[in-house]
Specification:
The complex is a heterodimer of chains A (214) and B (76). Chain A has 214 residues and is of the alpha+beta class. In chain A, 39% of the residues lie in helices and 14% in strands. Chain A has helices at residues 8-26, 58-79, 97-119, 130-139, 179-184, 201-204; strands at 31-36, 49-54, 90-93, 123-124, 146-151, 158-163. Chain A binds chain B through residues 18, 21-22, 25-28, 60, 67-68, 70-72, 74-75, 78-79, 84, 154-155, 179, 203, 205-207, 209, and chain B through 1, 3-4, 7-8, 11-12, 43, 46-51, 53-55, 57-59, 61-62, 64-66.
């Protein structure tokens, strides 16, 4: 895919001198290791650098859809002044969460595609961040009978799967939704195959620029 | 916790000397008031508030370990 832009040797020391005191001040019992990533067989997600966490607080890190893991990741990338289009180049991980999550999303995508083919009705995923939406689009790219597109803005941006020839749903009006309500009840009909996917957009936030489509 | 917020904020902003955190103890909740240079507000809030939300998540998790609730107030 694209060439490496970030190297563990280059950013490692800065990440370390930020994370170590942060983890200590927060009282998180975690260790981490910063390494260059080895590209996997597929191109679903190929970060340049991986920060892998271990330790007693890994459960806390991964609870609530890895909310804390993603928060630490985001703040670290902001600390490094990385432009947002580079944010998938560094991946924080623990217990192979990233890989398992991609697998889960891929399965959801395939199940949704089957449903759309069978019923001819568009399927709306619950809101997700841009990285996760990308995984859905990638999973469906070789499915000629359906197409996928993201709809909505910010926290409520969601992937919609359409039968290949169907026109897109209209963009929802930009209305003001108080954040607390948006998180409690992300709109979007029927969760994808699994219902526990509900509300997944809320904890790790948007990342999607309204105008950008994939 | 004051230290935590101070460290994170200082790493994010351009003018770390202007970062100040005040801790206000309440019965149930401890409020942490974060003040940064006006030009750095965007750095601690982030696009669509994502950075502020991330800091709150970290603070919330750290508070959970202490069985205490913390609120982050970013002063504008």
């Amino acid at each position: 895919m694209t060439e490496r832009k970030y190297l563990a040797a280059a950013i490692g020391p800065r990440v370390e001198s930020f994370l170590r005191p942060t983890l200590r001040a927060a009282g998180f019992d975690l260790s981490f290791e910063i390494t260059d990533s080895h590209p996997a067989g597929d191109d679903f997600e190929t970060p340049d650098v991986v920060v892998k966490f271990t330790g007693p607080d890994v459960d806390l890190l991964l609870s609530n859809r890895a909310e804390l893991l993603l928060a630490l990741e985001h703040v670290t990338m902001e600390m490094l002044r990385m432009p947002s289009e580079d944010h998938s180049r560094i991946s924080f991980d623990a217990n192979d969460y990233r890989l398992l999550r991609i697998e889960e999303l891929r399965l959801s995508a395939m199940t949704a595609a089957e449903k759309v083919k069978r019923t001819g009705v568009p399927f709306r995923f619950n809101p997700m961040n841009s990285r996760e939406r990308r995984v859905i689009h990638m999973a469906l790219r070789n499915e000629p009978e359906v197409r996928s597109e993201s709809l909505g803005a910010g926290l409520s941006r969601q992937v919609v799967v359409y039968p290949a020839g169907m026109a897109s749903l209209p963009e929802p009006p930009r209305e003001f939704v108080p954040r607390s309500r948006a998180q409690a009840a992300p709109h979007g009909s029927g969760g994808p195959p699994r219902d526990r996917d509900r509300g997944q957009g809320a904890p790790h936030g948007p990342a999607g620029r309204p105008a950008r489509r994939r | 916790m004051k230290q935590l917020i101070e460290d994170i904020a200082k790493a994010l902003v351009d003018i770390p000397e202007e970062v100040a955190v005040r801790e206000v103890q309440g019965e149930q909740v401890t409020v942490l008031e974060l003040k940064v240079a006006p030009s750095d507000l965007g750095k601690v809030i982030g696009k669509q508030g994502r950075t502020a939300r991330s800091i709150r998540t970290i603070l919330g998790a750290a508070g959970m370990k202490l069985n205490r609730r913390f609120t982050l107030e970013i002063l504008e």
